[in-house]
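PROTEIN ENTRY
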Amino acid sequence: MQGTFQRVALALAATSLLAAPLAAQTGYEHADPLVGTGGEGHTFPGAVAPFGMVQLSPDTDTGCAIRECYGHAAGYRHGDPTIQGFSLTHFSGAGHSDLGDFLIAPVAGDTVPLEPGDPKKPGSGYRSRFTHADEVARPGYYAVTLQDQGVRAEMTAGTRVAVERYAFPAGKAAHLVLDLRSSLYNYPGKILWSSVRVRPDGTITGARETRGWAPARKLFFAIRPSAPLKTHAFVDTEGKVPYRGFQGPGRGDDGVAQLQGRAIVARLDFGMLDRPLELRVALSSVDEDAALANLASEAGDFDAVHARTTAAWKQALGAIEAQGSDTALRNFYSAFYHTLMAPSVFSDADGRYRGPDDQVHQAEGFTFHSTFSLWDTFRAEHPLLLLVQPEARNRDIIQSLIASQQESPFGILPVWQFQGRETWTMIGYHAVPVIADAYLKGLRGFDGKAALDAMVASATYGPYGGLDWYQKLGYVPIDKEPEAASKTVEYAYDDWTIARMARALGRYDLAATFDKRAANWRNSFDVKTGFLRARKSDGAYRTPFDPTAINYGSDYTEGNAWQYSWFVPQDQAGLFRLMGGDAAVVRKLDAMFDFDNSKLDYSHAEDIAGLIGQYIHGNEPSHHVAYLYSYAGQPWRTQERLKQIVDSQYKPTTDGLAGNDDLGQMSAWLVFTMLGFYPVAPGSNQYVLGRPFLERATLTLPNGKRFTVSAPGLSEANRYVGNVTLNGRKLDRQFVTHEELMRGGELRFAMQATPNRTVVPAAGRPYSMSR
């Protein structure tokens, strides 16, 4: 690398997190996009704006086998030695691979390979080696040196536009490889078709349709380089039909150079450059012209886009002003950063988007968002957004869910949707609690009746997930539907939120119906064994029964009886009575956390990570369990378990997440827990108290008011809560309400070295529907 580029790299490194003095650091400086890029976190380090449509990030391996793809779900894995290129779309922390659209790799010199090559054989293709010492990752910015090419690559992104900047070594020709064959989880036949063209003004546009996790997904792009093309070549490596230059075969009716096929790779040649090459890029689900319009919607070069996105991240992360140790702040703000990426903007600048029916729709009065990992994110991610994002953002999310239901060929709300396409991944109809929680917390500006209709339609669509049997029997039978025990309790919770929403809208008939359904969890709870169990359609529990068994497609979803027996967030008091009362519940919770796993092997189950006994923090069904000691009147035990979980499951390092971040849910759990409270039952309008991990944190709420959580005396020694006051008055209960929080004020935890073992009476415990 030339001396100029070395000085640039050193200057960038000087602005890294570790270089800034602690007193001057803000949430932006503490947020590290590299957290979770190793281990099982599945996050990506590249550039994205808050909730941005484009996620521009390096891909270290896209040609993985099926099992290996799990570890590369975000395209980048921190332990890999090479970067294949930079693509425009990525999930943050998903448990499945897809996206990685429109990969670009810079190549310097006379030889331009069109294959990525073997990562074990340097120089065998266009991929390049790199070192982490040359990486810089900040919110909205990523940079790295591609050693084999001598190219310094920089990335930034706006809402619908991203900018790539490549500094090529002096004296070498600059080229780009645009590989439309490359995709994450790229099995044979995934690319159904693709196209690329060079327009008369030098703008490169194109598209492709993929059959991956989501079927028939169409995406279009526009790329405008800062330097003119000298030459180019398009090749269909499947059809072996080359097209080279600006004339001859492949010239379209509109006079542009173009090629269509299923395996297209393009070489773009810029010759010798005396300054870095910038590429402004944009996406659209509508068509190429819409991608061009999106490109025009956000003006400016690399530095201008970077400055706007940096300001946007500082504002978003500034919604919480935290004080604490450097490690605590890096943990907290890296997690907070990861909660602010999805759901992502998906409608174009003119409001158009491609919906679940594969048709183009117009969003009227809202911005359509997609990427809904709802089985994960209904728990804490969406409740957090209601506190830290403007009402307009949350309103957009709700309206997007309703629009998706109205446009769905099946007439139901999204299950796991991305880029407008349904994947049918995971269980439940968990868009329902997202909508209900928002409405019950006072969010307005959307059609409440249409929302309730969408919720009911999803809960009564018989062909989905055994719902026909659930409605007939009051539980999902295992001989008719897999994962029946999990589905029964998750449906019952969702039904409870429908009842709450219906009552708020004056639909007391619907409320009565769904109140009854909300108690269906009892139909699968076996009092004799003390566990949730799957039942057959004849009413018998399925045997043999092993509460520690975890197998895909069995009685439970990504878990076993130990985790799922606690999933009754709407009626923990009712569950506790069936378990034998508070003392029995505490013993069982302790047995779960202290379980000896030494003779169990869960290596066959990818999502089972972060084990503490039979508590599995790396997967969502366990996320509320540590707070259940408070429901049994022993909050000091919740405080102990939270300390155990935070210390063992989170670090501000590349391997710092115990499991998939799942579009922000793992991170949202940490944000809430470090603040000192958690939404165990979204829809109840209560936050269950835990213990804070920050000395002080102030939330600037969507209504403009400020709510502060303080923890005088907090230290490693002082890990217990002596007492809690709200606005100077001592709290005699283990929860605060959403209304109290939104009024602003101060929640004060007085910390001490020994537990306060005062048992909280039933009246001071969090909500349960049967109390």
